[in-house]
């Protein structure tokens, strides 16, 4: 008896912007989907509430990705629609995990994730740029400063993930009495870094909620 050859997996995107491109490249690089089996259509601003108006058996899940999906280091969340079951959720999660980390959450968290991780890429880049520019100000060559700043962020993120520590604990581990780090942290607190970062996520969340209503 001849073996049954399964149909190739096809993935379609509504719109073909940076996020769709990032996910598509992540899926292709991971070997989950072949490039010729990817489709893109005209963009739409519909959210999960609008998709619920589709026929009763339509299975919909809402996804919030971020740009690092392009290097398979994305941070994504997904929320089930009314008719999506465990099999659909597992299928989508399996696909998306080829692009990075993917967690299922209540839909109420999606706009927050857009601010934290979608917009957060730009926030982190701004901090990385500022770190490097501080070193440049003190005499380090620009290209070297930016490479070291990026690697510092990467190494710190890996430690937080692998060791499961709260950031405050890792920060405390770096401190020594009257050392360089506490002086630098004092300057950051004086500059309002913590409050500014929290306000940025708050502002971006409110904007995401506004956009999702259009």
How do the helices and strands line up, and which of them pair or pack?
Layout lengths: L10 E4 L3 H12 L8 E4 L6 H4 L9 E4 L9 E7 L5 H11 L3 E5 L5 H9 L1 H18 L4 H22 L3 H8 L5 H11 L2 H20 L2
Parallel strand pairs: 1-2, 4-5
Antiparallel strand pairs: 3-4
Helix pairs in contact: 4-9, 5-6
In short:
The chain has nine helices and five strands; from the N terminus they run E-H-E-H-E-E-H-E-H-H-H-H-H-H.
Portion in helices = 40-55%
CATH domain class name of the largest domain: Alpha Beta
Count of discrete alpha- or pi-helical segments spanning 4 or more residues: 9
Question: What is the molecular shape?
Answer: elongated
CATH architecture type of the largest domain: 3-Layer(aba) Sandwich
The main pleated sheet reads as: 3 strands, mixed
CATH superfamily of the largest domain: NAD(P)-binding Rossmann-like Domain
Overall radius of gyration: 21 Å
Work out the strand percent.
5-15%
**Global structural class:** mainly alpha
Spatial strand arrangement across the major sheet: 3-4-5
Q: What is the CA-CA span between the terminal residues?
A: 54 Å
What would the CATH topology of the largest domain be? Rossmann fold
- What's the β-strand tally? 5
Unreliable stretches: 1-5
For the residues shown, what is the average pLDDT?
87
Q: What do you see in this structure?
A:
The protein has helices spanning about 20-30, 50, 85-95, 110-120, 120-135, 140-165, 165-175, 180-190, 195-210, and strands spanning about 10-15, 40, 60-65, 75-80, 100-105. By secondary structure, it is mostly helical. It has 2 domains: about 10-110, NAD(P)-binding Rossmann-like Domain (Rossmann fold, 3-Layer(aba) Sandwich), CATH 3.40.50; about 120-210, ProC C-terminal domain-like (ProC C-terminal domain-like fold, Orthogonal Bundle), CATH 1.10.3730. The strands form 2 sheets. A 3-stranded mixed sheet has the order 3-4-5. α4 (about 110-120) crosses α9 and α5 crosses α6. The longest helix has 22 residues, at about 140-165. The chain is elongated. Mean pLDDT is about 85; it is low at about 1-5. Homodecamer; composed of 5 homodimers. Keywords: Amino-acid biosynthesis, NADP, Oxidoreductase, Proline biosynthesis. GO terms for molecular function: pyrroline-5-carboxylate reductase activity. It catalyses: L-proline + NAD(+) = (S)-1-pyrroline-5-carboxylate + NADH + 2 H(+); L-proline + NADP(+) = (S)-1-pyrroline-5-carboxylate + NADPH + 2 H(+).
């Amino acid at each position: 008896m001849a073996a049954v050859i399964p149909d190739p997996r096809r993935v379609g995107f509504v719109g073909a912007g940076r996020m769709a491109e990032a996910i598509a490249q992540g899926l292709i690089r991971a070997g989950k989907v072949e490039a010729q089996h990817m489709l893109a259509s005209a963009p739409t601003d519909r959210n999960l509430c609008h998709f619920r108006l589709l026929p009763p058996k339509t299975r919909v899940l809402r996804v919030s990705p971020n740009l690092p999906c392009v290097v398979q280091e994305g941070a994504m969340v997904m929320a089930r629609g009314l008719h999506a079951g465990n099999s659909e959720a597992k299928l989508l999660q399996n696909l998306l995990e080829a692009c990075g980390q993917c967690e299922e959450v209540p839909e109420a968290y999606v706009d927050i994730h857009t601010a934290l991780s979608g917009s957060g890429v730009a926030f982190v880049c701004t901090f990385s740029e500022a770190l490097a520019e501080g070193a440049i100000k003190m005499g380090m060559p620009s290209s070297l400063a930016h490479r070291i700043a990026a690697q510092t962020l990467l190494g710190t993120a890996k430690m937080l993930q692998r060791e499961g520590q709260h950031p405050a604990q890792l920060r405390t581990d770096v401190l020594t009495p009257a050392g360089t780090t506490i002086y630098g942290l004092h300057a950051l607190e004086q500059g309002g870094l913590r409050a500014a970062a929290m306000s940025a996520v708050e502002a971006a969340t409110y904007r995401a909620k506004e956009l999702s209503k259009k």
